[in-house]
Amino acid sequence: MSDENKPTRRNGLVILPEDRLTADDLRRRIAEREAEKRPDSVEYQHSLLCALTLPRSRQNSREYLRQYQGRILKLEAGDLYNGKQLIPQPLPYGPKARLALMHICTEAVKTQSRFLEVERSARAFMDRIGLHDGGSQYRLLRQQMNALGACRLTLGYTKANGKHATIYAKPIEEFEAWCSDDNGEPALWASELKLGETFFNDLMAHAVPLSGNAIRGLSHSALALDYYGMFAYRLHALDKPLKLTWEQLREQIGQEYANTKDFKKETIPAVKAVLEVYPSAKVEQVTGGLMLKPSPPPIARQSIGVSRGLADKVKASLPPPEPESAALVGRLAPRTVETFRKRYPRMDVYACEADFNEWLNSQAAEQPRNYDAAFLGFAAKWNRTNK
What we know:
The protein has 387 residues and is of the alpha+beta class. It contains 14 helices and 16 strands. α7 (212-218) runs parallel beside α11. It starts with 7 loop residues before the first strand and ends with a helix.
């Protein structure tokens, strides 16, 4: 074989001559060349959320359970104080909840601090992952940050010695917020937060590094983000190939799907997108599931980087996200409070408002354009029920 036809090595990868390149080789080579055009950033996620995932859609209940292979994750929705009363918050859910948690974990790891100033850091994070559309994406991210700030987390697992352990960890121990947004609209608007000590210490020991450009490409798909986190967490720890059946995968990250057929239908395009932005991952679709093979982590010298251009192409290839809307929970206008008291003099306006906000966060199909008008409509039914 002549020298020009011999394979060479670059960063630990075998580079074949052009006439022997397969489709996968070409894809990886294109990804490598594009990655050289723009630098990538390093983001972080807690390993726990790479193994046991958050809800992907809004939950009607105030609790959420995820159980897999001797581990169980329980989330409980909490409340935030708005200066007058405790406002019920929903369970964190969807791609924005995952991005909000990544942002919090990233800032904690990079600063080595439990304290986070939200305004500056959140906007910088959104710029890195390409979330821009006149402020609505920022509102949605902040809403999920509120939900994370209020929720409580319980983790149960079995130790190597066979004993069972339970950990109670509030991700965010202290949460400071304004009670109106930049336009004066009623909303709990995160300002500063402090991570819980247990969560912070565990994060420092078990943070999983991720590619910022990969996150950019998957940012509106909760399922794709879950697969990316799982591959980033598991592939580099494997010492031999591992087959996961569709049913095993559904049990781990797709428990909300009614059957394996529906789960597989949505999994395949999500995994395809993940492999585009994690080209060093060795994952193959085989009969009955996926074959996972030992691979370098997303952020490593021997891994192929991902450019923003490639990330944006992958993002455009994914199904459009389901419509999201920011809940307008906060303060009633003084005139609305006065109207309520005239109509229902024996009823507590703030008790009604708390029930209204809980209904918005857990049951409403969409958020009202006029918070006060919707509240008065709700109050009429609430008054009849609570007489």
